[in-house]
Amino acid sequence: MSELKVSDWIAQFLADQGVTHVYELIGGMIAHMIDSIHAAGRIELVSVRHEQAAAFAADAAGRCTGIPGVAMATSGPGATNLITGIGSAHFDSSPAVFLTGQVNRHEQKGERDIRQLGFQETDIVAMVKPITKGAVRAESPEEVPGLLAWAFELAMEGRPGTVVVDLPMDVQGARIAESELLATVQVERNRPGDEVIEVVLDDLRRAERPLMLVGAGVQAAGAAEAVRSMAHRLGVPVVNSLLGVDVLPAGDPLRVGLIGSYGNRWANMGLGRADALLVLGARLDIRQTGADIEAFKGDRVIHHVDVHAPEINNRVPDCHPVVADVGEFAQAVLAHEAADGVGDFSAWVEDLADLRRQWPDTEELNDVAGVNPNVLMHRISAVSTDAGAYVVDVGQHQQWAAQSLDLTAGQRFLTSGGMGAMGFSLPAAIGAAKALRRPIVVITGDGCFQLNIQELQTVVHHGLPLKIVVLDNKCHGMVRQFQETYFSERYASTWWGYSAPDFARVAAAYGIEGDRVGDPADVDDALARMWADPDAPFLLQVDVDSLANAYPKLAFGRPITEMEPLATPVGMEGT
Questions:
Q1: Domains identified in the chain, total number
Q2: What is the pLDDT of residues 84-143, one digit of tens each?
Q3: 3-state class of 221 per DSSP?
Q4: Rounded to two decimals, what is the model's pTM?
Q5: Quick one: 152 and 267 in the same domain?
Q6: Are strands 276-280 and 210-214 parallel, antiparallel or unpaired?
Q7: Residue 271 sits in a domain of what CATH number?
């Protein structure tokens, strides 16, 4: 039997799984793998300027394709720089595999009572185990084929997530027999039985005001199309969590809007009135339900569909558990003949539409000076129909985007939800652009953008069509809003003592065309310039009032229907 180098086997295996890009920052302990991938020529190496960016890019690639995104980093600081991105991808159910280099086996400290033996030796496996589905170090060359197959299967099966494989340098360079494990890894999906579907349909049939709540699990299961079809088959309107923004497109008559801490006021009010709830791939965490769990549950029946059983009845009690893949659940409903006779909910759909007309998102900040952020999101959407995705950072702009972007069918909405990692958007957009091969809109804030601003060079190097919109409120706005509510308007470190550069000029230094706008009357012209060349990167800096708040906001401790500024919190939020 012929032999090949372990790193050559890795290059072949990754390509055979459908991996088209590997995100990395070169280091000595991954030099074997970098060389093998380059020599094989089947995968594009995307060299970033910070390993955190590689992790965020892999996260986005995994979400957009359903194939685990892959990032690599060298031992020591390279591997530790991946950690935030590993955790963010894991919490948001993004399939991703991270390959870290490690020092040679004979340079590892083993059981010695010392801190380090080899240069940059760091136990990355121990560090990342709590934020991965699995993490392991290869102890021999012969283990590698099985470990890589295990990593890809684990990343995709059940609730997707992250896996780390740590590869000593001498293992990468060793030779092994060619393996039969080069076939594409497949995973099974859990499908519910007919009796479960019948119970759900019976409860919907008895309801007058049912809602479906869609979360991150829908896209993670590749089930958006099936869920849309199911919603229309049943006639049940749909609300979404932050990570479910892109399940139904804007204009769909059954799409209600964003619920939760910064949800659309009309959507939260509708959720409060619903007498039956079908939850699909949402965790019902505190940012979805608010702190008043009893008020959220009420007397209504809740069927909770999730592939990960521990998420069901975790915070909200007495839900009917349906442990199943969301896509398989939707397909089972579509195949069930009783789905046609659930009921006529057209009056309820019209009631929800009327709530939306009463509480439009663009009126929440009707007294803001200058550019209204919610209006801005609608204007961005109007000219960005060619974009494959909106990649959004973390902060007030994240909530304005989730409240007011008008996504067309097939457009994705990517953000860091569970980790809430600032600096996510620019590198994640790189991964999305490579995966989708379409222009990408980046929506970020002045604070977030500075965390990974160095990746503008990666954008230029690869000629990526990123349309970057920086909302510059000259502060860390979400925490400044928190300080306004709870710290008597003492804005230490958010507004006081904080500053940012002129981002349009920074973009110019990287060779990216840019513009800056502050007058609402100039916004449309600036957006037209942004899209004048769809294939070129562009940065648009939009000045926003430093005191603009993200409203509505759930008044902490109150039911989900009671939101600021019309209601006041009853305690200080801790999450």
A1: 3
A2: 999 999 999 999 999 999 988 899 889 999 999 888 889 999 999 999 999 999 999 999
A3: coil
A4: 0.97
A5: no
A6: parallel
A7: 3.40.50.1220
